[in-house]
Amino acid sequence: MTPSLARGLPLVVLALVAFGLPLAVTSATYLHILILLFLYAYLTTSWNLVGGFAGVLPLGHAAFVGIGAYTSTILSLQYGVSPWIGMFVGGLLSSLVGVIIGLPTFKMRGAYFALATIAFAEGIRVMFENIDYLGPLQINGPRGLQIPPLKTGLVHFMFADKEPYYYIILVMLAAVLALTWAISRSKLGYYLVAGGEEPEAAQSLGINVAHAKLAAMAMSSFLTALAGTFWAQFTLYIHPKSVMSLDISFEIAFIALIGGRGSIAGPVLGALLLRPVSDFSRIYFGDTLPGLHLIIFGVVLILVMLYQPRGLQEPLTRLYRRAMGRLIGDRGAPG
Amino acid sequence: MQSNRQLICIMITAALVIAGAHAALAQTTIKVGNILPLSGPSASVGLQNKQAQDMAIQEINDAGGIKALGGAKIQMLYADSESKPEKGVAEAERFINTEKVNILTGAWNSAVSYPVSAVAERYGIPFLVPVSVADKITEQGFKYVFRIAAKDSWWTRDQFAFLKDMEKEFNTKIATVAFVYENGDWGKGFAEGWKKLAQQGGYKVVLDEPYPSTATDLSPVVQKIKRANPDVLFLTSNAADAILLTNTMAEYKVKPKAIIASGGGHADPSFMKATGKNARYLFDIVEWETDVNKPGADKTNEKFKKLYGYNLAGESVDAYVAMYVLADALERAKSTDPKAIRDALAATKLTTGPAMIVGYDAIEFDASGQNKHAALVMIQINDIGKGMERITVWPKVSRRANYKPVFPTP
Amino acid sequence: MLFIIEDTINGILMGSIYGLAALGLTVIFGVLKVINFAHGSLLMVGMYVAYWAVLLTGMHPYLSLVVVVPVMFVFGYLLQDILIKPIFKSEKEVREPITVIIVTTGVWYILDNLALLIFGPQYRNIQDNPLRGKMLEIGDMMVSVPKLWGFFTALATALVIYLFLRKTRMGRAVRATSLDRDAASLQGINQYRIYNIAFGMGTAVAGVAGVTLVPFYNVFPTVGVLFDIKCFIIVVLGGLGSIGGALLGGMIIGVIESVGPQFMTATWTEAIVYALFLAFLFLKPSGLFGVKYDW
Per the CB < 8 Å rule, is C90 touching A129? Predict the structure, then answer.
């Protein structure tokens, strides 16, 4: 077996396992938890295009989730447009908003950028809470929109069972991971990393850092909005405090930093650690000691950051390489 | 970068292990899944609901459980929604699929009860809602949702009915009204009702003001009320803002002829403590009050106060009563099958037992699952020699003996 | 016209308390160059300390400062020393370690929910205190006395910090570290100790803000969250690291919040604050006092 084949093999196994999982996990509860896990992995991977590669810390991605969720929901509720189409309309709209946000904010450094994105997202949420009707479009202010579970089927993006949702988000996650992988090897990827690490040096090499960042932002907000539609169709109820809450923006950033931002596996690793911690601690302690689950979440955040400030991705990659090295005698070619 | 891809593999396998660890438990008891906001901004009300239900379940089980099922005990499982719809839905899914609950109850926040009702309907698990008041919860054509409390259109209707009665009783003409409400699902729902009723009643609306319940300073809103100078002020507030509004209004000497609140924050046990004499003469509409003229009510309240250190409030009574409605349905269903429980719930006609501490005489659900007898009472906060207390004033039949409401406010 | 003056005064007073809260954040940012996301939670801790001090001893709310300030200073000092210093040590080459944001957010979750576990979700306030509900009546205008106390406390606190930084040896060391931590280290200044002190100061200031709120505000576990975003907006508006900027930024927000609702609903005013903030950020990204981290 050649080393490259051996390295490709786990990917195949991984794909098989992921697609076969619903056969083993028959409980809708765990499927639900897995779907949310993949959803967050997807969101964080989309976020990673800006937050990881471009080296800034956006803390307002919930706005894009909300724009995606509202666009497809309004289109399908009021105009009977399939959420699949609405999904892409929402993506484009969100992309536009992303660029509008990016234009002024990318000039800012560190903390200013993070705070500006928070303010943007909160501003958009507050606006949605204040508007009942936007022209002919019913936004319904703080009360939000409910999607009646009447028409199920692929066209309506609505299913009675969880398996279809699982496969949809899995495919979305695989696609966005592949896209990230392609971008990381493209010129844009190099520009972004260079611009994030040494903006002045990159500029002097003739790289248009601002353009690269804007392109990344456009893609990132587009992809994030797609997840918004998924969120709406999965929970069938959206209101500004749920789909646009700061909590989502923060959780995405946590997952990225815990996993290791700027790497392809980081978001998935982060989601695999943080989502179960958050779900299971809530399940086990939420009833008897309210709040304890959030304390546990906080402790995990702090511990990982203290001992692995660059995220879990680095040590795990090392471990994995060593294991693979033992197994097939390949001393881990530089990846 | 390349090995990163492969790394994902290991981690997903790890997730598999976690996921595989689930085990179905054998059913020996009747399991009730209860979703409440136990942490986060609504933790205070979540806790009140939980304590009332704990007490009810304890009583039911101590009295021999469900006799028709061989003395089966009710087991209450709690989950924390943090007031977030998506967490509530996830917990509902878990209760139904993993814990195999026979019935769901909760979720206090209308925004959580709403999507949870859809989950319950899909799985055919009865969802007994004590207090989420948004009209739409029982107006979705669902078969498995049942609500004990009155819906918000009834609350607003009774607030105006009360006002009309007061005008007659005290021969005072009310011309202008002001609406101030938290900008959320609940407040907006009330405001919509008020606007319609004000128009029908011929009142002039001089102020219609939503405010964010996360506001750190409410004196601008109070100033607005002062300048609009309404005869009657209608309020819908959560606890923190109810306290802040009441205290700030006292500071700015805002004294309309009457203030009519909508329960919620104004009925929170912290409210009386944190406002003191500033809340004097305030009217508040609630499901229940400690001075209700019903046998057993004071005893139940005393027991509760001894256990948890504060009085039962309307919402906690609904939560308490819901457990007896459930026990009654189980006795009649003679089965733990959700469908049978649902049918028994739909046929509920409860007129006796500890649940009858409510201010009305029977609990029956209409076709939409709404408790059709659910009635509300209006209370006034006043000091008649024993410190500030909540005194029932309306409807007149329920009014505390020898109490004359203070209207308009001096 | 009179009502605009009245609202403006209220806005300035309330805003100065926001500014005071933000002052702690700006002190920490000025030196450590990181945003402390746990700031609102520190304010909450300060409020609980003040609340219990007043409730148990019956002292004047402002007298509780003698308890709150030292307790909060030590608390912040240790917090930085134990949780944040290791990150600075392991990420020496990074100027603004983002990791710290995650750690402070972790601290936020822990503190808020510890308060929930220990004190319960109830809303508390001190009914019997000499400041509660006091109003100053000037003609038809009314001014809240506890807020007035808050206003002067904010000014005094800002002055004390300013003098400390300008006139004391330690203060100069803090400023030197904030300007160039490497150069300061070369001068023999222990930068980690300075960080501890700055964080302790920021936390103590959050405590002072807590004390000013206790006479008229509610104390509950999630109270800090209400002030968090507000503080972030204020420090950027005023210029991150600027003391005067924080106070002025706070007052601007306070005035908008107070006067705005007279022309629109309070919920729209909330949106206006964000819009103005963003507009400002584009036009003058370095804040009102456009000096870069210079004290």
Answer: no
